[in-house]
Amino acid sequence: MKWFQRDRTEQQAGAAPLTGVGKSGALPERAPQLLTAGGPVLQRFGGDGDRVTHLTTGAEPVILDITHQGAGHFVVDALDGGLHSRSQLVYTEGPFACRSLVNADDRPVQALRVQADGPWMIEATVVSSALTWIGSAQRSASDVLRYEGGPGIATLRYEGDPLSEDGGCFLVDTFKPGGDGFLDELANHVGPWRGEAPLSGPCLIHARSDGPWSISVRTTGSSVPS
Predict the structure, then answer these.
(1) Which tens digit of pLDDT belongs to each residue from 176-206?
(2) In 69-192, at which residue ranges do the beta strands (DSSP E only) sit?
(3) Order of all β-strands in the sheet with 41-47
């Protein structure tokens, strides 16, 4: 299930820890509630099975709040203007909840293809709905967080996905604070992993993850000690 890894390859070619959301080894009965900083819902749509829906939010970056209440498969693909899949946002089983960032790079998303065996809901919200975190954060699925600190070294840990044969995938990108431009890739790994990456300053952090992950930052001022 190296869909995050494959997605990144294609792109290169062309104060308290937050509580987690998402799946675990034992599937919950219902998808957990998403945590957001609030903000208007720009578009809301849902269903109870397979569906293709056009985004009406335009070219501006938006955050997608995605939930699934079914017991079986759930897949969400982001489509371009020709309805070709450009990025796979979700590939999972059972009740699930996550947040994803779209239209923050040079690959505009104009529609979403959902494949599901039960009820699901997607809400497009403004970028300001990303939660701000200080020091450290812990999540259990894909999410979008806002970092407002200065330059620092980020320590990232991915616990892996016990439901995946390859241990699951973990891809973390940073974008400009307004979501209007790609900055850097912090992680792109399959299976459990721990590592460090530099953060230059305020940004949006978009993590796409099959399982639990965490991030913490130690600030360094204007320079990194030798």
Answers:
(1) 999 989 999 999 999 999 999 999 899 999 9
(2) 73-79, 85-93, 96-102, 111-116, 120-125, 131-133, 136-139, 143-147, 152-158, 169-175, 182-190
(3) 41-47, 120-125, 62-68, 96-102
Using left for φ > 0, alpha for ψ between -120 and 50, and beta otherwise, residue 38 falls in left
Tokens of 198: 């530099």
CA dist., res. 158 & res. 171, Å (int): 10
Task: Give the chain's end-to-end CA distance (angstroms, integer).
Answer: 38
CA atoms within 13 A on the CB side of 83: 6
**Alpha-carbon distance values, 7 to 1, 3, 41, 148, 187 (Å):** 12, 6, 27, 27, 13
Compute the residue count for the chain. 226
Helix (H, G, I), strand (E, B) or coil at 196: strand
Give the pLDDT of residue 221.
Answer: 63
Instruction: Say if CB 91 and CB 1 are below 8 A apart.
Output: yes
